[in-house]
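S.,

As promised, the LLP run. Input:
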Amino acid sequence: MDHFTYKNRILHCDDVPVPALAEKYGTPLYVYSKKTLQHHLKQLQSAFAAVNPLVCYSIKTNGNLHITKLMVEGGAGCDVTSAGELYRALKAGCPADKIVFAGAGKTDAEIRMAFDNGVFLFNVESEGELDAIADIARGMNRVAQVALRVNPDLPPKTHAKTDTSVKGVKFGLDIDTVLEFAQKVVKNPHVKVVGLHMHLGSPILSTEPYRLGIAKGLMLIDKLRDQGHKINVWNMGGGFGINYKKNEALPATAFAEVIVPGIQKSGCKLVLEPGRFIVGNAGLLVSRVIYTKDSGGKHFVIQDAAMNDLIRPTLYDSFHRVWPVVGSPPEDFQIENPGTIKCDVVGPVCESGDFLAKDRYLPPVGRGELLATFSAGAYGMAMASNYNGRPRAAEVLVDGGEHHLIRRRETNEDLIRPEIEC
Ligand code: LLP
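Predicted complex:
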């Protein structure tokens, strides 16, 4: 469920007509719905309520301070992967004891920063990392709480670039050797292994990987406890898929049905690191058509959002629904609906890979008309760049009939600001 609806053929976010937002803030523009963000967080919290989880919003997905703060106000902690994200989480008011620190390549400076601020848990991914954390903890006279991130070696389940639990990817500790590794650190006075961490991949559209992960995790936790580790946290990561096309995703309750019994059996505190589930369908990207043209047997709609604003289509061949802001959206965006023509929706960037949608049936649109690219709240702005000298888009948060700019549009001056004057 989200709060983006067509009323009298005009797309609204809550009570605000999207054309009014485009007029006021310009395009390309990211528009987020506060109510949808809150609703999605609540859905997760209620689905897993039986085990009172710590939901750590994965701020890599969309770390805007206002969105992160909304999550924190809703009771969430944060999952961070770098000093920059840690800084952001703290700035948004996240209590440090609700922050989990993930990432395969934490630097010494990042580890120190995490200690200085008292983060709850390090998700550890290699022997080298554990040594570094232990060394730094000794130097600072501290004891680190860590969760071992294990790669449970499951069958492929999502796009190869975002599948994190198959053999041969860089993530986690190898499930075949994790126990040997864990044995070596039982007596380390500066590192307490208190948890198990898994992030299976993203997005995941079935419960099966979680079922398999839980089964493997339960066995591992038993063995880690036999070694003397007092395991009391189980971090299942994120990965819950969303509807990009139609109704392909599962509700939070479906994942809870598979995960909760395993957690109860383990006696652990459940940590979750969802990102996409919360913010993916809480945001869309609004753009304006600049030109249309026919070339090489194709009809191109050239609009002012590009791969630098939303790189998912070209990076992962991802499908995002695209439709005019003024019009009547079809039930199914994947078919040739009456009155539509086949288009490539592209941007101004100098790459053939610069597109938001390919071979898509849209009503004819012309110069100046607005388009909405849906499900763009997750890994949209977060992965945006300044490629081709393009200032990044503005972001606006809508709440009922109100709207607030939460990130101003970048300017040409912003583009050169960090460069040394010549
Ligand atoms: N925890 C860890 C350790 C992760 O690596 C990730 C995502 C998450 C949690 C959050 O996963 P989510 O709940 O959002 O699925 N850029 C790609 C997705 C990359 C995912 C990276 N890790 C995309 O646009 O599809």
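The pocket of LLP is lined by residues 58, 61, 79, 102, 162, 199, 202-203, 237-240, 273-277, 312, 316, 378-379 (CB under 6 Å). The chain is about 30% helix and 25% strand.

- D.
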